[in-house]
Design goal:
489 residues; alpha/beta; 3 domains; eleven-stranded mixed beta sheet; four-stranded antiparallel beta sheet; 15 strands
Amino acid sequence: MSASIVIGAERTGSPVRIDIEELLATRLLVQGNSGSGKSHLLRRLLEQSASVVQQVVIDPEGDFASLSEAFGHVVVDGSAYDQAEIAKLAARIRKHRASVVLTLDGLELEAQMRCAAVFLNTLFDAPRDEWYPALVVVDEAQMFAPAAAGDVTDEVRRLSLGAMTNLMCRGRKRGLAGVIATQRLAKLAKNVAAEASNFLMGRTFLDIDMARAADLLGMERRQAEQIRDLERGHFLGLGPAIARRPVGVRIGDVETRARNVVQGLMPLPNAAGAEMESILLSEPLAMEPPPRAPEPEAAPVDSEQLLGQIESTLPVSEQVEPPVEPSLFMQEETAAQVAEILAEMAREPDCTFQPAAQLYQDFTVRCRMQRLANTGIDLAAFRRRFAMAVAGIPDDADPAWQLLLKIARNVPDDLLAPFLLLAVAASEGAPCPDDERLAEAYGTRSPGRIRRLLEHLEKSGLIVVRTDYGGRRSVGIPELGAVSAPVAA
């Protein structure tokens, strides 16, 4: 596997490469004014190296969450966890070498700095046997390593600056390679910027930033003017991982896009003048209600107690009178109706991409439409029954499937549907499900997740994957003693 990726091309068309192995040892600094193409450059770097090295992205604007769909990155919403939970997540990320995007767009600046500091410090403090190589990309790095005090407290600034300094100064021995991007070098702490040995400098206009960029690139001050004339998406690169002399590079195309980018102009509304005025003033503007006296705040509810309340709450639409105990005939009829409802739901397109709670609500509505007041299936049981339906197993009471379901008893709910698909194919000697079918059952469109799924199931001893010289894959279930027919992977 090559450790060199193509980041773009020179004006002559010659490719410009970045040596990822060298980058891990020498770090990278990206600079450019807003609109110069920094995020595009980082996205290109991440996409091209996704299959080469673990990636951890500190994303203050939520721009890189779309990497999860194409490359299997785990998106961690920083606003959804407290400090202890962020530290635990970072420790697991380091241990399991997961590529993640930590999105911080739901937090205020001070909270962003605290969250990023805890996250980076936990990565840095990992045990020695977990010092795996990883690219740590920090966008808008001037926010987390400011050159001067700003609108945040000194304590938060020191915490965040210390984490960034550790990343850039001491992270190399721990396998952490900092890739930092900033709009202005003058706003970035010098001791953080100085540790990078590779540079990609984009368009900038202020004299102080052009002078610093020229110094870093080893250019004379009078040559700094060309930095002002760079086009969008064009950068000057220098460093042991890029080139020994400054080289102009136009960044290549990317596969993913930021979700919150406005693409170009939009046509203006047809209404104007008096017509627009009538639209805006068609209803009287409501008067501001007088301020009410603040109500006394209730004591905060313990998180465990709150979770218990949420789990025990039953929607009004599902609160029905307990039915009379049915006869054996009625129980069999109910089981058949439930199996038919589950099979019907499993046949619907994209059903596996919906949350389990939403599917369960749909299931209960369908049961009430069939006058099935009490099916005895709660949310946990529904997850497994629905996975069985997706795999084509109609009923858990069928003796033909008892051994298979016994084997699957310890398989996690989110992995059950693809495992049962493989097991059913093996037990029937049918062709092994291909990646597309497994991805549909798993509820993903990422081929990488399917590869990791098969590796996990095989390491757990649940399956044995065999690929012949023709590239055809077959899967065996050791406890069943059965193997599926081979099919092209």
